[in-house]
Amino acid sequence: MAGRTKLTSKDRQSTQALVLWNLHAAGLGLREPFGRGKEAVLAAIHHLGYVQIDTISVVARAQHHVLWSRVPGYRREWLDELQKERKILEYWAHAAAYLPMSDYRYTLPTKKYFRDHQDSWQKSDAKTKKQVLKIIRAEGPKMARDFASDRKRKAAGWWDWKPAKVALERLYFEGELCCSHRVGFQKVYDLTERVIPSGLNTSYPSDEEYADYLIDGALRLHGHATTSQMGYLRKGLAGMIKGRVHQRTANLDLISLPIKNSTYFIERKTITIAFKKPKPHIHLLSPFDPFLIQRKRTQELFNFDYQLECYLPAARRRYGYFVLPILHGAKFIGRLDAKADRKTGQFIVKELHFENPDRKRQPLKLLEHEISRYARFCGCDGIAGTFP
């Protein structure tokens, strides 16, 4: 691992145990960790804590790809149905995401953050927000396109959104509006009281409750986590999380496991669980999969240095625009740069990179089968491009 001294035998054993915990906790150690069908999708979201929503559709969108990786026979409409059934909620985790509806109360601190204008996002004037709320209250759910623009857009980009669109997003982030469902990929906004089920606990969480929510979510998803990983991309919460972890460690609820420069925490009740090394399945993972979204963690535990390069200028890309990490059993073995050309029905393999240059040692048959399976999920019936 770059920048670190050589691991001792004890460190290597501990790291291997952490890797196995991580795989099983993230739902990647078994073929059907949550079962099958729509209820398995709901179980997966509850377990993972969130499924990130992304606009990029070079292959499958992240929210569908993540669930396809864990629920055999996954169907995209199940996610829409669960949202309309009010079993899941769309809001901001560390990014736009689907959350369990039962987690609604834990979105309230973020909503307060936006109401207090502590963010740097585009603001909306009070008059426009009031008008937008009045229309939705009287006429029902609306999309941004339902509001006529009173000015021409000069260029593409969120900073040029028409005033009503900006107001809708501010009201959404501040909590007065919710995303009722989506039409295509467009949000349909409605009053929060008309989206949140009656009887749901909507009380504002205490600092202790909120810290436990973040700690427990990280441990459920990863099996173990450092305090910084528990508060990943959550501003201003490091002290609160560290204080609560200290309390729970003192109460013997959590135990610490120092490995070189990091200290991981694990629930005491799970420390005795022995996870077998997973069968050598192949997973083509989304770059936004919660299992590997924390790149530093992935490098530390799996010795896999991964960066999503679509945000880099083309000249600076090393592996490709939207590269999928390839997980084989408990080891990352390569990266797939691919594109789903839905007009021609071809899944284009642009480049296949292996971490070990000896291709004779690669599980090529398993990989070819998984690429074919993924291509079908992306709506393609043929594969074109380079494959060994």
Structure description:
The protein starts with 8 loop residues before the first helix and ends with a strand. The chain contains 13 helices and twelve strands. It has 388 residues and is an alpha+beta fold. The radius of gyration is 22 Å and the shape is globular. Among the domains are: 121-195, Arc Repressor Mutant, subunit A (Orthogonal Bundle), CATH 1.10.10; 282-385, 3-Layer(aba) Sandwich (Aminopeptidase). It has a five-stranded mixed beta sheet, with helices on one face. A three-stranded antiparallel beta sheet has the order 1-3-2.
Describe the oligomeric state of these chains in a short phrase. Answer: single chain
Q: How would you write the strand order of the largest sheet? A: 8-9-10-11-12
Task: Look up the CATH topology of the domain at 282-385.
Answer: Aminopeptidase
Give the overall shape: globular
In the CATH hierarchy, the architecture of the domain at 282-385 is 3-Layer(aba) Sandwich
CA distance, first residue to last residue: 29 Å
- The structural class is alpha+beta
Count of DSSP strands: 12
Element-level helix/strand string: HHEHHEEHHHEEHHHHEEEHEEEHE
Low-confidence stretches: 1-9, 152-160
Helical run tally: 13
Question: DSSP strand (E) fraction?
Answer: 15-25%
Helix content percent band: 25-40%
Name of the CATH class of the domain at 282-385: Alpha Beta
User: What do the pLDDT scores average to?
Assistant: 89
Biggest pleated-sheet summary: 5 strands, mixed
Radius of gyration: 22 Å
